[in-house]
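Hello,

Our lab assistant flagged a job as stuck in the queue for most of the afternoon. It eventually completed. Since we weren't sure the result was trustworthy after the delay, we are filing this so someone can double-check. Below is the sequence as submitted and the structure that was eventually returned. Let us know if re-running is recommended.
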Amino acid sequence: MGRTLDPVCKMCRREGIKLYLKGSRCDSPKCAIERRQASPGMHGYRRGKLSEYGIRLREKQKLKRFYGLFERQFRRYFSLASRSPENTGEVLLTLMERRLDNVVHRLGWAPCRASARQLVSHGHLTVNGKHCNIPSLLLKVGDTVAVKSRPRSLTLVRLNLQNNSMPVPDYLERLEGEPQTGRVVRMPTRDDIDPHIQEIREQLIIEVCSR
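-- returned structure --
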């Protein structure tokens, strides 16, 4: 399985926006993009004007890095979205929102998507009552995600909930009681996308992927 070993703060600096790859650290004075507003590298302060292709490519890279995808995964989602009769850009964004690791993060059980991915892959959760360790699983309406009834799993999620201040989106429902349980009540729409990436221009992504 591929993974990124470079400092993730470089990704935010390269894209020029906060991608919130480190949870609460991104809102603290330690955030790298707050201290250095230039792209990484020795020529970061002297980067020229982007071409039309470069503008579209940067939008695509922002979306991939925000949700923690590699190119092959992203191409798979684009292929699924392009087959839909609905707006391809909006379908692409809703596919990203339906990923299991994203749902775990939006429920407040993990401070960032990387932590949510680790929570899933280490076997702390169940989907519809069955063990699941696939972060890229696309959830459907009615699917239920629950924390396993193990002290370590429950403690991890409980600590993250205490430090979480983000509201649960409307397409998800967080049930009360132990163990912590969440449910997909409807398909997400364009308005349900994470507020940190709401300004993404999905039409530019479709243009660069359709070349």
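-- support follow-up --
The delay was a queue issue, not a problem with the job. The result is valid. The beta strands are 125-127, 130-131, 144-147, 172-175, 181-184. Residues 113 and 199 are 19 Å apart (CA to CA).
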